[in-house]
Amino acid sequence: MKSAPQKIYVAGHRGMVGSAIVRQLLARKHDPSNIVLRTHQELDLTDQAAVRHFMQTEKPDQVYLAAALVGGIHANNTYPADFIYQNLMIQANVIDAAFREGVRRLLFLGSSCIYPKLAEQPMREEALLTGPLEPTNEPYAIAKIAGIKLCESYNRQYGESHGVDYRSVMPTNLYGPGDNYHPDNSHVVPGLIRRFHEAKLQRSPAVTVWGTGKPRREFLHVDDMAAACLHVMDLDPGTWRDQVKPMQSHLNVGYGDDVSIAELAQLVARVVGYSGRLSFDSTKPDGTPRKLMSSARLEALGWKARITLETGLVSAYQDFLNRSQNRHD
User: Fold this and answer.
1) 8-178+218-257+292-306 CATH fold
2) What is the spatial distance between Cα 197 and Cα 274, in angstroms, rounded to a whole number?
């Protein structure tokens, strides 16, 4: 029986995905003292020297690279330099320092925005680098593509000689506990939760949603994503090589179905309990027309999402209420 790693470093443990990975590790009885965590104040991952010193000191056996600067369309449009620079630096520093200290197993978390704007649906792993990206989040997407290629390159150069096995997972749109509910810089689900909640409290007769409402998106609960991360990390090298094509190191992680933004807004309004009118502002950007990922390869490896969208939205709204209450205490 395979023994658990002595040390697991979760980069970005305060973020939505990182915190969910920690919850999954603890639920699977990993010793908390062997889960290595650092806040941004304790370790700036854009600081190469600091990251190398950390790896030299802690020497983890596995690394989950969930740290990233993330945001929605507005944030990506407003801070493109921040999104490409910070994410490139985080990825390069962590992956290289991990290699230098003998970390053989690393999992990099990317994003579905790596695929071309007009990629064939559902998007398969082979669609990477086959067409132009969505302009509104191109800097972030390019950084994430670079992360995938870093993992591929270290595998190609050091896989046989050093036993390097760095893997990447590309989640679809994520939501759930630990999300960012900022009024301007959030993704669509937390943004809608906040707006409908505030509209309910203010008894607003209507809420306006960005865009036409026609684009279709796939949404995956963050606890499902965390479970997929552990599943992929635990796959033995032989199984991984058989399922993932040579020279490719990433797998899609999706829910398997999508909804229109209009349908999503109606569902969030129902979960929140807002009964006013919904309207759509077509002067605001829609982004990619459709983003549905094929998770067939991961499903063939024994993993499938379990949390339905409505059930997941209920938990996400409860998380928002809990955090709102804590801010008011």
Assistant:
1) Rossmann fold (3.40.50)
2) 7
Q: Which segments are annotated as binding site?
A: 12-18, 109-112, 144, 171-174, 187, 195, 210, 217, 286
The mean pLDDT of the chain is 92
Rounded to whole angstroms, the Cα distance separating 95 from 148 reads 11
The Cα 121–Cα 144 span in angstroms is 20
Q: Looking at residues 21-28, what average pLDDT do you find?
A: 96
Annotated binding-site residue numbers for NADP(+): 12-18, 109-112, 144, 171-174, 187
Per-residue pLDDT tens over the stretch 62-105: 999 999 988 777 778 888 999 999 999 999 999 999 999 999 99
Whole-angstrom distance, CA of residue 31 vs CA of residue 233:
17
Please give the C-alpha separations between residue 108 and each of 31, 68, 132, 193, in angstroms, as whole numbers. Answer: 22, 10, 23, 28
Q: Return the number of other C-beta atoms located less than 10 Å from residue 181's C-beta.
A: 19
316 Cβ contact partners less than 8 Å away, ≥ 6 residues apart: 175, 176, 177, 179, 189, 190, 193, 221
**Residue 1 confidence (pLDDT):** 46
> Tokens 């939205």 belong to which residue?
313
Q: List C-alpha distances in Å: 315 to 86, 175, 177, 267, 268.
A: 31, 10, 7, 13, 12
Per-residue b/e over 222-246, b at no fewer than 16 CB within 10 Å? bbbbbbbbbbbbebeeeebeeebee
- What pTM did the predictor assign? 0.91
Please confirm whether the linkage preceding 122 is cis (ω < 30° from 0).
Answer: yes
Q: How far is Cα 166 from Cα 62, in angstroms, rounded to an integer? A: 10
Active site residues: 140
Q: Is the pLDDT of residue 292 over 50?
A: yes
